[in-house]
Amino acid sequence: MDRRAMGIELGGQPLSFADMVRIGSGNVGLSIDPAGMTRIAAARRVVDQAIASGMPVYGATTGVGAMKDVEWSPEDLDAFNLGLVRAHHFGTGSPFSMAVVRNAMAIRINTALTGQVGCSPELVTSYLQLLEADVVPVVRRTGSIGCADIGLMGQIGAVLTGVGEAVYKGRRMQAADAFAAAGIAPVRMLPRDSLASLSVNAVSFAAAAEATRNAAASIRILLATGMMASGALGGSRDPWRAVRHVGTSSEALIGSWLCHASDDWKWPVSTHVQDPLSLRMIAQVFGAVIENLLATGHKILAATGRSDDNPVVVEGRVMTSGGSLPLDVTILLESAALCMAHAARNAFNRCVLLGNGQRRDLPVNLVPKGRIATGFGPIIKLAGEIFSRVLSMSNPVSAQSLVVAAGMEDEAAFLPLVIERLDRQMRALKRLAALEALLAAQAIDIVGDEPRGVARKLYDVVRKHAEFYVVDRPLSAEVEAIEEDFGSDTFVSELISQVPILAFDDFFALGSLERVTERLSAVPVPA
């Protein structure tokens, strides 16, 4: 199937995770709903009329921030608008992924199509032109306090005018060279267009979507290794059965998955009365986590279809707005970071149980009887470090105080920082899942179990990279190799195909691009 043939029409409605996976890949054709362009033109007329009447329009005929009361003459406007967007190319550090930048441009187009921005139709078509030519601006990730991504979006806006850097056909180059190679021309920033290229959170929303989707994939893997470890420890499945009747809907969903994912395995039970909470309460922990991730995902998607500009065009007027503060998304992402800490603690506790031995007569440090080895005792410290690392990034930062622009800007959400911390947590969780699976595989082999289904897939990945432990050896590269396999879209697709959680997997469009495309072609997408 030609992926570009299944195009996406942007019309001002919220995007889906599947949309963003496909847009981010650069392998989908994009078009604009004509009705949306009609709304843009109508809003633009309102702005033009306001300017023609002599009314000051923030960021179009006046300065911004501390210079809000500086008004520019008509002769100054071209120079001001060009300089404004270039002055906001101040981001530093490592760049966002090309997928995030493509989605940020699509979100900017989409939110403009609400007809509440007042930018010119030419600005919207210039963003679409970049996407069609796959000229992807280099956007360095440090440059926003989370109250409009001015230092992030400014890097895209500057590229539109022919300065900055972009990636074209796999090569990073100066924007002017990329434009020449692609056969496109820089744009002239009309009044209002420059600020419309800056004063939105499109990069943060695109990055938040990517981080949340990655967190969802990490949680799916960690849930699977938790089930595998429970089997290796001989935990009872009764709490998973019980939660289907007495738990919340999310807990029941996870309990059902745990039961179905372990049905193929001749489940070993060594429970006496009841198990430690890290085994009994997997459904409760992961139920809360997926409930939060779903709520966070819905909030992010809603943001892709609303104008967070300042000013906005509503009720036939140009009005100032406070919509550039993305506090709703930020607070839910901070809650997600706390959820990641709970998931990490849950997995760490099972790693400790596995390393301690005792259950099912497992030896201490999982050293086989008769062998002279230190075994897996030392690596439990890695599990503890990973948990502590995840926990340290769960404290909220959005309520910190910051005053800039002569006191005109005294609220901020720090959304990019929150996203970066969630991103780092996600990577740590994948490593913790690899470690838990490594320990569980050793325990399984010691007691002679024969895992099936989901557990077998995990076990096979572990044994692909790590032999049964009988002599002390370095483990660093083995853990990293298992982590890399677990984190691949291919493995996530295979895991989902074994026992899906459709309401979660399909919402976040988990797995490979091929799987996402197949699901879209097989199942009607609800309006």
Main sheet? 3 strands, antiparallel
- Average pLDDT, to the nearest integer? 94
Major β-sheet strand ordering: 4-6-7
Report the sheet-strand fraction: 5-15%
Q: In terms of topology, how is this protein built?
A:
Elements: E1 8-10, H1 17-25, E2 30-32, H2 34-52, H3 77-87, E3 92-95, H4 98-112, H5 121-133, E4 136-137, E5 140-142, H6 150-160, E6 165-168, E7 171-174, H7 175-182, H8 193-196, H9 202-232, H10 238-246, H11 249-262, H12 277-280, H13 282-303, E8 312-314, E9 317-319, H14 327-356, H15 380-392, H16 415-447, H17 453-465, H18 476-486, H19 489-498, H20 502-505, H21 513-522
Parallel strand pairs: 1-2
Antiparallel strand pairs: 3-5, 4-6, 6-7, 8-9
Structure description:
The radius of gyration is 26 Å and the shape is elongated. With 527 residues, the chain is mainly alpha-helical. Helix 3 packs across helix 6 (150-160) and helix 13 packs antiparallel against helix 14 (327-356). The chain contains 21 helices and nine strands.
